Amino acid sequence: MTHKIVVVYQSLLGIYGDRGNAKVLLKRLQWRGEPAELVDVEPGQPLPPDGLIYLLGGGEDQAQIAAVKQLQADGGLQAGLDAGGVLFAVCAGYQLCGRSFTVGENDEVFAGLGLLDVETRRGPQRAVGEVLTRWTRPDGGLELLTGFENHGGFTSLGSDAKPFAKVEIGVGNGTDGYDGAVQGRVIGTYPHGPILPRNPALADYLLELALGRTLGPLPRPDVNAEHDRLRAQRLEVVRTTKNRAEQTR
Amino acid sequence: MTGRGTGASIKGAIMTRVDPTLFRTLLAGKRIGVVSGTNGKTTTTHLLTAALRASVADPREVVTNPDGANLREGVVSALSTRPKAPIAALEVDEQVVADVIRHGRPEVLIMLNFSRDQLDRHHEINALGRKWRQALTEAGDEGPTVVANAKDPLVAWSAQPARKVIWVDLGTDWSQDSALCPNCGSVLGHDAAGRWDCPGCELGEQPCDYRVDGDEVVMPDGERMRLGLQVPGRFNNGNAACALAAAVEMGVYAPVAIRGMRTVQAPAGRFAIGTYGDTKARLVLAKNPAGWAESLLVMESDPVILAIDSLIADGTDVSWLWDVDYERLAGRRVIATGPRSADLAVRLSYAEVAHEVIPDVADALKGPFDGTVDVLATYSVFLRLCRMGGVDLK
Predict the structure, then answer these.
(1) CA dihedral angle for residue A46, residue A51, residue A55, residue A60, rounded to 10 degrees
(2) Which end of chain B is more exposed for a tag (fewer CB within 10 A), N or C?
(3) How far is CA B149 from CA B124, B196, B206, B245, in A?
């Protein structure tokens, strides 16, 4: 069976190179000899019910509203999750998975998909810059995650959602010292970069969660070395930048 | 953006501090053509300037800001070099266009495109379009004729209130930045011929007056004119079609305008050949995914050098690397260089493009190469390469 990596509405929710997350998931399957394909779904087209991982990315206000409307009309995302798919949502994609979010200067409230027990409201200032978070893997292992955040909304978690990672440097949810939220097989987070090329361990975790089995190490020493070099560089930058708001924006 | 920190901008800033009315007084009484949009401003301004200069006895009658200094200070500095020049061709930053419409009453305004650029700074490109609409509405019958990219929905919406619009099909196909109708928020549709249309309101693609077809421009009367430019790339043929439409609107005979545009070689260093020891390198600038998509098409050498930085002028967020279709370089050799070459290296690996990483730009240029090597660079690296390679930035 060919595993489907489903990019949901790239034209609406792909503003921060988020399609890169799909490319990373796809190649990391293929390089391990697993048959996989990338499926692009645009508004008006039905979401496949048998996706391995569904991806939502960042977008502007109007795009966010349009995406919720389209996803509710389609219904395929819920079907995919019910069938065991994993949803990984970044930035605006994270916000719209929640119960509600606001857009614009007038703070108009919109209902989200309700897949995560979170609510997003406009924060005191826009969060822009490099981010460092500490993610505790479900198996207890600790991973540092790096990314770049750019969002105006701050997010509060309800009792059904668990925080995803602890913020070391940056803003994240902006309300609780954490970034993102997890609920069942839905994971939301603010940083892009895109996030998976910067954090291949997170990419492999998502794949293993979706497949329900462990994967061996990636048999590409050249690519692994490039990931290591990039991670070392970004960790160094985020830790040594004194005025994050000025110097990393 | 591009003007910040150049000599012209600093000079203009000092002059404006001494006399705050200069922006207004220097613009007054001139015949003005303005060029704005996300990509192609500088080259299009050079093309328009050349077209206008070809039609006058003394080229000094046309004043311009050739170096890309396109904020108020840059415009002031440029105009002050020839305050009595009767004609001006001005590159103007998207944020300054409304001011120029108000104070300069330009005859023509070229709107090239609106694209996502420097995501860490401009959060909503629709807000820009709204400002332009307001300025055009206020100007009413005294407003400019707008030369507008018919394929760009945000440009079309921004141009709507203009007194007169000349629609141009630039022959390029970037559409990743315009999924939604800027007027009503509906998801835009496309017909079989590729024309965009809004299902929710009246906004839709207008029939074009000028159209690019390969190396030719199809004029409003159907006549075909060969461009034969020295600047490469189909996007520059599109830029030239806009400059041609603007020049004709300002009274220049089309063949004269084209003869002028053919003299343009390396606008503010773009496509110039720099010298680095024994290496000769052709310098190409790209600032955002739309620019990279088009610029990759003009890369000819093997290997090709890609140079990335993330200073303020480049945009500090390099996530756009994943929006560029580097897959199309498969089979070519790539040298990844610059301070963000580690990000680029990962991107190229996932695109299955063979590459070598040489972080230091000067080292990457050492070669040896067979013939001229093409370098595609983000803004700050491009500027550095111009200086290092002895390239004139005018």
Answers:
(1) 10
(2) C
(3) 20, 13, 10, 11
What tokens does B383 get? 């500027």
Catalytic-labelled residue, pool A3, A91, A97, A151: A91
List domains and CATH numbers for chain B. 7-265 (3.40.1190.10), 272-388 (3.90.190.20)
CATH number at residue A67: 3.40.50.880
Per-residue pLDDT of chain A (249 residues; tens, 9 = 90+): 899 999 999 999 988 889 999 999 999 999 999 999 999 999 999 999 999 999 999 998 889 999 999 999 999 999 999 999 999 999 999 999 999 999 888 899 999 999 999 999 999 998 999 999 999 998 899 999 999 999 999 999 999 999 999 999 999 999 999 999 999 999 999 999 899 999 999 999 999 999 999 999 999 999 999 999 999 999 999 998 765 554 444
Q: A221: burial class by Cβ within 10 Å (0-12, 13-18, 19+)?
A: exposed
Residue B124's closest chain A neighbor by CA? A60
The conformation of residue B180, written as its DSSP 8-state character, comes to B
Asked if B231 contacts B154 with a C-beta cutoff of 8 angstroms, the reply is: no
* Structural domain range at position A125: 3-247
Note the ipTM here: 0.95
The Cα of A225 is separated from the nearest Cα of chain B by a number of Å equal to: 9
Is the CB of residue B350 less than 8 Å away from at least one CB of chain A? yes
- Count of the separate structural domains present in chain A: 1
- Residues B329, A26 contacting (CB under 8 angstroms): no
Beta bridge partners of A155: A120
Q: Quick one: which H or E segment has residue A153?
A: strand A142-157
Preceding peptide of B207 cis, ω within 30°: no
How distant is the alpha carbon of residue A44 from its chain centre?
A: 23
E strands, chain B, where? 31-36, 62-64, 87-91, 108-111, 145-149, 164-169, 189-190, 196-197, 210-213, 216-218, 224-226, 273-276, 279-285, 304-307, 334-337, 355-357, 373-377
Q: Which of B262, B173, B162 minimizes the C-alpha distance to B212?
A: B173
Check if B349 contacts A (Cβ < 8 Å): yes
